[in-house]
């Protein structure tokens, strides 16, 4: 089966521009890995290097124990689903799904079986003889997945496959993808810039920024124990409040946490850990966004700004003053370069 | 613009390019080079000897009254053809863009002359203006008392080839003007109408300026057409006559080389024309690329 | 938009009808002339309505030609025109597709040199380099042959440029998907690029067919053998027969026959033709 090993993988373009540097991690067989980060962080480049669409300029890549740096994309035992689906517009759904198999010289009977199976699996049976332009966005997306499934690869690669769909369809297909992964039992490598997608899909997340890996871990791991201010601010919506340690807000919050480490650069706290209490830190409510189950409350402590997630037990009013409290263990500490300092 | 992904292959791209490059080298580059080389030589009548004469062929041309006249003829011919066919086509395109019903059938009737060969266009008008039996010549004489005879009257001969050349080019200009008008945002015209501009004012202040890229593009294309592609019209009808009145530059290259057998001079004329085409193409590229617009 | 100007509407239609009359009148006169006996066209004014000799005139033209102008049957000339037009069209499309494919989908040494070499030809119409090109054809022994008529005209910067532009609009992901599907360059070209280019090929076909059919100077130079005359160039000999012999009815019949195929192509495939014309010039 297929586990992936990236060993010091890097990509430097001809002009000397480095897109990815020293990426080292392993992906276990049947794992669902999501590469996430802002655009230009190198996540797509890593995926394309795994696919064999970009040359690896440093380090090596193993798929199932075999170094594949110089192996053609068609021979890597992988399949890829593209952001814009990349369906062949002049071929029918059936033609699209069978093209790769025909190129391998697979007997027609077997091709037909596989297509029938995948079509049933993806509920594409009524559309097999249609051209892609006669399908909706969601159906095209399924065809793109079908094209990958029929090849029965050991690794599936997804390049932002849901970003061209509307919000409702995206949520629905997200669930289907997760289900698909469970049923196929194959390795999934998935790229997205959407942290919600990453959180909801991944077994483990690889979060990247400017060509480097910031942190690798399970979604909850990244959420509760971000390795850097970057991760803290990227994961979660609204993100973690990250405050300059020397600022007024941080100093007041730290007064509630007696054993904070020295050499602090930043202090972080998730919006849901801020509570309204009787004693604590005074803050001004500047804006209230009621969302139903919860309310996002924008706060100002002097010049510093924070967001708290309020429950239904308290009515917030813009312009009023509230008293904040929190458990010291909910504070996260970062050094001046933004790296996490574990609690003493 | 470049592709992000390309195929890698050592010799395949060269193989793919080979036919095109071979034809280009053999039938384009090599003859062009030959013309350049020959233009610096003087060949004797029998073609046995040739002498390197520097720019003598060129200086001879520019001191030759008939060649300089040919420049003028070409300029008058080119500008007249361009102006006549473009203004007619613009009027037709504006009209066709206005009609609501029958748009397609009007278009059909207006575009087919594009397919008529220039030589045939020349022959048609040659027949219509034939001094002894041409229908147009007859009408000119009976209605206006014009004594039409392009066999002896150089101006009339030039006018005839101008009309023939413009007639053939109207369809082409019409199509591009119509495409330009149709791609114009409707909201602009509507805004102008709400601002109280009359249809004529709307055209001159909104449509015409917005058409400027098309107009400029057509200007260059029409000049190139008039300078080079009209050879057939002239060759099939007036043969440059009477008395060189319709001998435009391309016709001169042909008559000097094939009829007069003066290879050096013909080659020098070729070189001058090539320089002219290259200059026009560069102008076209620079302006069209930048899209003449505000 | 609400517009209530009856006068403007009338003017519009008058302009269009005048334009159509101006464009159609010469052809009408030619068509009428080709149905009369030669003597009817000897004095002015010539008839403006059909005569009775249509069948005789066209039969004579197609099967025996005009004796005073060499007597080559027009059927032969039209066949030659067709071969030349198709040869030029298919040749141009084939070699342009291949070279555009090479230039867009490969990176190789000297790529830009080749690119410019091809595009320089844009600037050099046959008319400006007649003599040396003739010499090349002569020394290759290609005078009086279909090859001589066709091959030198099949290098086309325009078609290459058009296909290059089109290929550049095809999403990169399609190539990537094809590579995932184990398609090499040839297979990609054949299975994906070619089918996707169908409309462009068809549109270009129309433009190039007209271009090929209407060639004049080139066949004039290359062919001295009457059996290879093309119709557009053949008409010139009839015109030059002179005033003495009354063959205008034949000349006009020839003009009509010569314009029928390209005009039919334009009318039958109007939409593709407009697309081809507008895009090949951009």
TrEMBL record, chain A:
GO cellular component entries: ATP-binding cassette (ABC) transporter complex, substrate-binding subunit-containing
Keyword ATP-binding: yes
GO BP field: carbohydrate transport
GO function terms (MF aspect): ABC-type transporter activity; ATP binding; ATP hydrolysis activity
Span of domain ABC transporter: 4-235
UniProt cross-references to Gene3D superfamilies, sorted A to Z: 2.40.50.100, Nucleic acid-binding proteins, P-loop containing nucleotide triphosphate hydrolases
Keywords from the named record: ATP-binding, Nucleotide-binding, Transport
Superkingdom of origin: Bacteria
SUPFAM superfamilies: MOP-like, P-loop containing nucleoside triphosphate hydrolases
A Pfam match: TOBE_2
UniProt-listed InterPro entries: AAA+_ATPase (IPR003593), ABC_transporter-like_ATP-bd (IPR003439), ABC_transporter-like_CS (IPR017871), ABC_transpr_MalK-like (IPR015855), ABC_transpr_MalK/UgpC-like (IPR047641), Mo/tungstate-bd_C_term_dom (IPR008995), NA-bd_OB-fold (IPR012340), P-loop_NTPase (IPR027417)
Keyword ATP-binding annotated: yes
Family per similarity comment: Belongs to the ABC transporter superfamily.
NCBIfam families noted in UniProt: PRK11650.1 (NF008653)
The protein's name: Sn-glycerol-3-phosphate ABC transporter ATP-binding protein UgpC
Originating gene: ugpC
TrEMBL record, chain B:
TM region positions: 12-33, 71-97, 109-128, 157-181, 202-228, 267-288
Gene Ontology biological-process entries: transmembrane transport
UniProt cross-references to InterPro entries, sorted A to Z: MetI-like, MetI-like_sf, UgpAE/MalFG_permease
UniProt keyword Transport present: yes
Domain ABC transmembrane type-1 positions: 71-284
Localization per record: Cell inner membrane; Cell membrane
Record's keyword terms, sorted: Cell inner membrane, Cell membrane, Membrane, Transmembrane, Transmembrane helix, Transport
Domain of life from the UniProt record: Bacteria
Membrane topology: Multi-pass membrane protein
GO cellular component terms given for this protein: plasma membrane
Family: Belongs to the binding-protein-dependent transport system permease family.
Subunit structure, as described in the record: The complex is composed of two ATP-binding proteins (UgpC), two transmembrane proteins (UgpA and UgpE) and a solute-binding protein (UgpB).
PANTHER family: BLL4140 PROTEIN, SN-GLYCEROL-3-PHOSPHATE TRANSPORT SYSTEM PERMEASE PROTEIN UGPA
Known function: Part of the ABC transporter complex UgpBAEC involved in sn-glycerol-3-phosphate (G3P) import. Probably responsible for the translocation of the substrate across the membrane.
Protein name stated in the entry: sn-glycerol-3-phosphate transport system permease protein UgpA
Organism: Roseovarius gahaiensis
Lineage: Bacteria, Pseudomonadati, Pseudomonadota, Alphaproteobacteria, Rhodobacterales
From TrEMBL, chain C:
Keyword Ribonucleoprotein (UniProt): no
Keyword Transferase found: no
Signal peptide residues on this chain, from the entry's feature table: none
Highest taxon listed in the record's lineage: Bacteria
Keywords linked to the UniProt accession: Cell inner membrane, Cell membrane, Membrane, Transmembrane, Transmembrane helix, Transport
Membrane topology: Multi-pass membrane protein
Compartmental location: Cell inner membrane; Cell membrane
Alphabetized InterPro entries for the sequence: MetI-like, MetI-like_sf
CDD domains per UniProt: TM_PBP2
Domain ABC transmembrane type-1: start-end pairs: 78-269
Subunit structure: The complex is composed of two ATP-binding proteins (UgpC), two transmembrane proteins (UgpA and UgpE) and a solute-binding protein (UgpB).
Function: Part of the ABC transporter complex UgpBAEC involved in sn-glycerol-3-phosphate (G3P) import. Probably responsible for the translocation of the substrate across the membrane.
Protein name as annotated: sn-glycerol-3-phosphate transport system permease protein UgpE
Organism lineage string: Bacteria, Pseudomonadati, Pseudomonadota, Alphaproteobacteria, Rhodobacterales
Gene coding for it: ugpE
């Amino acid at each position: 089966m297929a586990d992936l090993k990236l060993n010091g993988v890097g990509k430097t373009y001809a002009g000397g521009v480095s897109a990815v540097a020293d990426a080292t991690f392993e992906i276990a067989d049947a794992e669902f890995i999501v590469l996430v980060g802002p655009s230009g962080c190198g996540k797509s480049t890593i995926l394309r290097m795994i696919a064999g669409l970009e040359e690896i300029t440093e380090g090596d890549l193993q798929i199932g124990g075999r170094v594949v740096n110089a192996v053609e994309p068609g021979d890597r035992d992988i399949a890829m689903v593209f952001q814009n689906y990349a369906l062949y517009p002049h071929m029918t759904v059936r033609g699209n799904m069978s093209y790769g198999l025909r190129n391998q010289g697979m007997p027609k009977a077997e091709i037909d079986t596989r297509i029938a199976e995948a079509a049933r699996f993806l509920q594409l049976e009524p559309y097999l003889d249609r051209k892609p332009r006669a399908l909706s966005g969601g159906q095209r997306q399924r065809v793109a997945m079908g094209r990958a499934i029929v090849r029965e690869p050991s690794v599936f690669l997804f390049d932002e496959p849901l970003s061209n769909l509307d919000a409702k369809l995206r949520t629905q297909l997200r669930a289907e993808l997760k289900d698909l992964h469970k049923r196929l039992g194959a390795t999934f490598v998935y790229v997205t810039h959407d942290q919600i997608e990453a959180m909801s899909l991944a077994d483990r997340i690889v979060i990247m920024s400017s060509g480097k890996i910031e942190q690798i871990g399970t979604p909850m791991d990244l959420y509760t124990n971000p390795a850097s201010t970057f991760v803290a601010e990227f994961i979660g919506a609204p993100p973690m409040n990250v405050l300059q340690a020397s600022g007024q807000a941080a100093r007041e919050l730290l007064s509630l946490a007696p054993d904070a480490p020295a050499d602090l650069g930043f202090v972080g706290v998730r919006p849901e850990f801020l509570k309204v209490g009787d004693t604590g830190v005074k803050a001004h409510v500047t804006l209230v966004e009621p969302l139903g189950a919860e309310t996002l409350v924008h706060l100002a402590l002097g010049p510093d700004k924070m967001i708290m997630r309020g429950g239904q037990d308290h009515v917030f009013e813009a312009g009023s003053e509230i008293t904040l409290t929190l458990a010291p263990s909910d504070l996260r500490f970062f050094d001046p370069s933004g790296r996490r300092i574990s609690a003493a | 613009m470049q592709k992000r992904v390309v195929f890698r292959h050592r010799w395949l791209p060269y193989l793919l390019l080979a036919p095109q490059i071979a034809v280009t080298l053999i039938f384009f580059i090599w003859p062009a080079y030959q013309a350049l080389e020959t233009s610096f030589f003087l060949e004797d009548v029998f073609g046995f000897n040739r002498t390197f004469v520097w720019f003598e062929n060129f200086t001879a041309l520019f001191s030759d009254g008939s060649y300089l006249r040919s420049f003028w003829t070409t300029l008058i011919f080119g500008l007249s053809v361009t102006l006549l066919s473009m203004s007619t086509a613009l009027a037709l395109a504006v009209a066709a863009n206005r009609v609501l019903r029958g748009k397609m059938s009007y278009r059909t009737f207006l575009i087919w002359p594009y397919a008529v060969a220039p030589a045939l266009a020349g022959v048609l008008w040659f027949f219509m203006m034939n001094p002894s039996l041409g229908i147009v010549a007859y009408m000119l004489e009976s209605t206006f008392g014009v004594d039409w005879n392009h066999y002896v009257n150089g101006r009339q001969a030039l006018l005839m080839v101008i009309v023939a050349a413009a007639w053939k080019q109207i369809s082409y200009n019409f199509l591009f003007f119509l495409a330009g008008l149709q791609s114009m945002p409707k909201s602009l015209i509507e805004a102008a109408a709400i601002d109280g501009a009359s249809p004529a004012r709307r055209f001159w202040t909104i449509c015409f300026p917005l058409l400027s890229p098309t107009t400029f593009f057509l200007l260059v294309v029409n000049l190139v057409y008039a300078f080079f592609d009209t050879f057939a019209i002239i060759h099939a009808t007036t043969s440059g006559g009477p008395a060189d009145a319709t001998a435009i530059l391309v016709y001169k290259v042909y008559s000097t080389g094939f009829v007069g057998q003066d290879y050096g001079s013909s080659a020098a004329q070729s070189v001058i024309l090539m320089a002219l085409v290259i200059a026009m193409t560069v102008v076209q590229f620079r302006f069209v690329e930048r899209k003449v617009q505000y | 938009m609400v517009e209530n100007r009856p006068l403007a509407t009338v003017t519009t239609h008058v302009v269009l009808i005048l334009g159509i009359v101006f464009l159609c009148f010469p052809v009408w006169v030619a068509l009428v002339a080709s149905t009369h006996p030669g003597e009817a066209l000897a004095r002015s004014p010539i008839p403006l309505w059909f005569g009775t000799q249509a069948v005789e005139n066209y039969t004579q033209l197609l099967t025996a030609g005009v004796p005073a102008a060499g007597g080559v049957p027009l059927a032969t000339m039209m066949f030659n025109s067709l071969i030349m037009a198709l040869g030029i069209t298919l040749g141009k499309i084939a070699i342009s597709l291949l070279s555009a494919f090479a230039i867009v989908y490969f990176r190789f040494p000297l790529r830009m040199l080749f690119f410019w070499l091809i595009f320089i030809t844009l600037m050099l119409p046959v008319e400006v380099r007649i003599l040396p090109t003739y010499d090349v054809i002569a020394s290759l022994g290609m005078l009086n042959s279909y090859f001589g008529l066709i091959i030198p005209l099949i290098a086309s910067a325009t078609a290459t440029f058009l296909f290059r532009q089109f290929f550049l609009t095809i999403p990169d992901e399609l190539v990537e998907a094809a590579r995932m599907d184990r398609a090499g360059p040839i297979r990609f070209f054949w299975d994906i690029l070619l089918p996707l280019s169908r409309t462009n090929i068809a549109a270009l076909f129309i433009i190039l067919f007209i271009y090929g059919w209407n060639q004049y100077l080139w066949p004039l130079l290359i062919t001295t053998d009457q059996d290879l005359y093309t119709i557009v160039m053949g008409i010139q000999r009839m015109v030059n027969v002179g005033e003495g012999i009354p063959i205008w009815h034949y000349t006009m019949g020839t003009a009509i026959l010569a314009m029928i195929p390209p005009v039919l192509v334009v009318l039958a495939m109007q939409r593709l033709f407009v697309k081809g014309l507008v895009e090949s010039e951009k």
